[in-house]
Write a structure and sequence with these properties.
The chain is mainly alpha-helical and 168 residues long. It has two domains: 3-67, no CATH class; 71-166. 65% of the residues lie in helices and 7% in strands. It is built from three helices and three strands. The chain has helices spanning 36-41, 44-109, 129-166; strands at residues 3-7, 12-16, 30-31. Strand 1 and strand 2 form a beta hairpin. Helix 2 (44-109) runs antiparallel to helix 3. The longest helix is centred in the middle third of the chain and has 66 residues, at 44-109. It is rod-shaped. It starts with a strand and ends with a helix. Bound molecules: zinc ion. Zinc ion is lined by residues 7, 9-10, 22, 24-25, 27.
């Protein structure tokens, strides 16, 4: 379909059935928001008005596009740093989780109760072995529950980090 184009640099208007490359300077021209018939029906003053309006409109449109671009990249930087923070917190959660797992496993497997040398004792609290096993069992359960809590929390932080990283 033929459209009316206007090259601001050469100050010419032309009708073309193409992509609006100016026949004089070879640059891309502005499309005028009128049909060929409407254009031909306009007098010189009317044509000037259409050209000026289209040119001013193009300027402000490109400015809007530039500021929108800037905003997008600023937002990108912000979400990038949020996701980095979330990953760091997740790493801390995982480290605490492994510490809890280690402590729970230790309560479960390391037990020694010496009658004579108290310094040899491992995870012994009172005289009777049965009591100590019960106490260690409770400790182990508590530490594993804590470990799971930190594991889940850390995973949520990682998911949050992925979410913010992909959010544009
Ligand atoms: Zn031109």
């Amino acid at each position: 379909m033929e459209k009316v184009f206007y090259c601001h640099d050469c100050n010419i208007s032309f009708i073309q059935d193409g992509d609006g490359i100016c026949p004089r300077c070879g640059k891309k021209a502005i499309v005028l928001p009128v049909s060929v018939d409407q254009w031909n029906a306009l007098d010189e003053a009317g044509k000037e008005n259409v050209k000026r309006a289209a040119f001013n409109n193009r300027e402000s449109n490109s400015q809007v596009a530039i500021s929108a671009d800037k905003k997008v990249s600023e937002n990108g930087k912000k979400t990038e740093s949020i996701s980095r923070t979330l990953y760091v917190v997740a790493a801390v959660m995982y480290i605490i989780c492994s510490a809890m797992l280690y402590k729970g496993y230790d309560k479960l497997t390391n037990y020694y109760n010496s009658e004579n040398y108290i310094s040899l004792n491992k995870n012994a609290y009172v005289g009777g072995d049965a009591y100590n096993y019960i106490i260690n069992g409770t400790y182990a359960t508590s530490f594993f529950v804590l470990a799971m809590g930190f594991l889940i929390t850390g995973t949520l932080f990682i998911l949050g980090g992925i979410y913010f990283k992909n959010k544009k």
